[in-house]
C-alpha cells in the first residue's frame, strides 16, 4: 500500500495484521468479525481532530485484508466516536452499528414514554448486522426533525429481517430492515445534532477509506499475477494504471485527514465539511471503480471463478461503493458549489 507523506507518522505505521491474521478472514463467522471490531477499537482512538489520519489508515488496512470485516469494524468505530463526542459511556463488551438511512415506505418515530424515556416505533431500513449486534445508534423522526438515539437491540420489540438480504456481495453482513415496537431508547445529542456536527462528514470520509483499502487488496491480486508472469506486458500496463488510481484516491484521503487533524475546535463554518467529504468520497469512488474494472478486465474470469477470496472481495467492494450514489452525489456537489461556493477556481 502506498503511504502518502501527508499521512501522520503514527498513521503510516498502523499494522492490524496481528488482529486480522486470526479472525476476519473471508468466510469467518460474524462473531469473529465483531471480536476484531472490538479489538481494533481498543487500539484506535475515536475519530476526532487529531486522530483522523490514524483512523482512516486503520480502516483502510482492515479493508485491504477483508472488505466485509471493514464493513463490520467501521460502524462500530463510528458509533464509539459519536458517543464519545456526546459524552456518553459505552457498556463493556458491547458491539455497535449506526442505522441512519431513510427509505421510501418506512419511517421510525420517537415519542415520549410514560416514565420519561423515549420510545421508538416503526421500521428502519438498511440495518447492518442488527441481529448480531448488542446496540445501535438509530435516527428517528421526532417532531419536525430527526434525532439520534442509543438502543439496546436485545430488547423485546426489536424484530430483524435478515431474510430480506439476498445480496451476493457481503452475504454474511445482512443489512435488512428492523421493526421497532415500543422500544425504549436514550437520546444522543439534541435534535439535528447528529447530522450537523463536523463528525458526520468525517465519518463519511472514513467509509471512503474502507473503499480505498478494499481496492488496495484487489490491486495486490493483480500485482501478484503480474509478478508471476514477467512476460505479460498488458498486466504491467494494468498494474501501472491501478497504482496511479490508488495514489490519486490516497491523496484525497490523506489531504482530508490532514485538514481534520489541523482543526483545533474551529466552528463548522470555517470549513465546508459536507462539501469536502462529498468531493473526497466521489474521488475515491471513481478510483475504486476504475481499479476494480481494470483488475477484473486484466485477470479475466479465472480468479472470480476459482478463488473464493478474490471473488468475495470483488463482489463485496462492488456493493460497498454503492453507498456513494454516483451521479446523484455529483449533482449534490454541484448544488453546494452553486449555493455556497467552495472551489478555488
Helix/strand-derived category reads: alpha+beta
* Beta-strand percentage range: 5-15%
Q: What is the H/E order?
A: HHHHHEEEEEEEHHHHHHH
Name the shape in a single word. globular
> What is the strand tally?
7
Largest sheet: 7 strands, mixed
Average pLDDT works out at 91
Distance from first to last alpha carbon = 32 Å
Share in helix: 40-55%
The total of helices stands at: 12
Low-confidence stretches: none
Radius of gyration over C-alpha positions, nearest whole angstrom: 20 Å
Task: Provide keyphrases for this structure.
single chain; 345 residues; alpha+beta; 7-stranded mixed sheet
Describe this structure in words.
By secondary structure, the protein is of the alpha+beta class. It is built from twelve helices and seven strands. Strands 1, 2, 3, 4, 5, 6 and 7 form a seven-stranded mixed beta sheet that branches. A hairpin with a 2-residue loop joins strand 4 (135-142) and strand 5 (145-152). Helix 4 crosses helix 7, helix 7 (198-228) runs antiparallel to helix 11 (308-320) and helix 8 (233-262) packs antiparallel against helix 9 (273-299). The chain is globular and about 75 Å long.
Helices and strands, with pairings:
Layout: H1 9-12, H2 17-20, H3 30-43, H4 52-65, H5 67-86, E1 96-99, E2 108-112, E3 118-124, E4 135-142, E5 145-152, E6 158-160, E7 178-188, H6 193-196, H7 198-228, H8 233-262, H9 273-299, H10 302-306, H11 308-320, H12 327-340
Parallel strand pairs: 1-4
Antiparallel strand pairs: 2-3, 3-7, 4-5, 5-7, 6-7
Helix pairs in contact: 3-5, 4-5, 4-7, 5-7, 7-8, 7-9, 7-11, 8-9, 9-12
Amino acid at each position: 500500500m502506498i503511504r502518502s507523506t501527508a499521512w501522520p507518522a503514527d498513521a503510516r505505521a498502523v499494522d492490524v495484521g496481528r488482529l486480522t491474521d486470526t479472525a476476519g478472514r473471508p468466510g469467518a463467522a460474524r462473531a469473529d468479525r465483531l471480536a476484531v471490531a472490538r479489538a481494533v477499537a481498543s487500539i484506535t482512538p475515536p475519530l476526532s481532530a487529531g486522530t483522523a489520519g490514524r483512523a482512516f489508515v486503520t480502516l483502510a488496512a482492515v479493508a485491504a485484508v477483508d472488505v466485509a470485516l471493514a464493513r463490520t469494524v467501521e460502524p462500530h468505530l463510528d458509533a464509539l466516536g459519536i458517543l464519545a463526542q456526546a459524552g456518553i459511556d459505552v457498556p463493556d463488551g458491547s458491539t455497535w452499528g449506526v442505522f441512519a438511512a431513510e427509505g421510501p415506505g418506512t419511517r421510525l418515530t420517537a415519542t415520549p414514554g410514560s416514565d420519561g424515556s423515549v420510545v421508538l416505533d416503526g421500521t428502519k431500513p438498511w440495518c447492518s448486522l442488527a441481529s448480531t449486534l448488542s446496540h445501535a445508534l438509530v435516527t428517528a423522526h421526532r417532531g419536525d426533525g430527526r434525532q439520534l438515539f442509543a438502543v439496546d437491540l436485545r430488547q423485546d420489540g426489536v424484530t430483524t429481517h435478515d431474510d430480506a438480504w439476498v445480496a451476493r456481495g457481503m452475504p454474511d453482513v445482512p443489512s435488512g430492515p428492523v421493526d421497532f415496537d415500543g422500544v425504549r431508547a436514550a437520546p444522543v445529542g439534541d435534535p439535528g445534532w447528529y447530522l450537523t456536527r463536523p463528525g458526520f462528514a468525517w465519518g463519511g470520509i472514513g467509509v471512503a477509506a474502507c473503499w480505498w483499502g478494499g481496492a488496495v487488496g484487489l490491486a495486490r491480486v493483480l500485482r501478484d499475477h503480474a509478478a508471476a508472469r514477467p512476460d505479460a506486458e498488458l498486466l504491467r500496463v494494468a498494474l501501472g494504471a491501478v497504482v496511479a488510481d490508488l495514489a490519486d484516491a490516497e491523496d484525497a484521503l490523506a489531504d482530508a485527514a490532514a485538514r481534520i487533524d489541523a482543526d483545533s475546535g474551529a466552528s463548522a463554518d470555517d470549513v465546508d465539511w459536507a462539501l469536502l467529504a462529498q468531493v473526497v468520497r466521489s474521488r475515491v469512488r471513481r478510483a475504486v471503480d476504475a481499479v476494480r474494472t481494470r483488475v477484473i478486465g486484466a485477470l479475466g474470469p479465472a480468479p472470480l471463478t476459482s478463488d473464493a477470496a478474490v471473488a468475495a472481495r470483488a463482489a463485496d467492494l462492488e456493493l460497498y461503493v454503492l453507498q456513494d450514489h454516483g451521479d446523484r452525489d455529483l449533482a449534490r456537489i454541484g448544488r453546494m458549489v452553486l449555493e455556497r461556493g467552495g472551489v478555488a477556481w
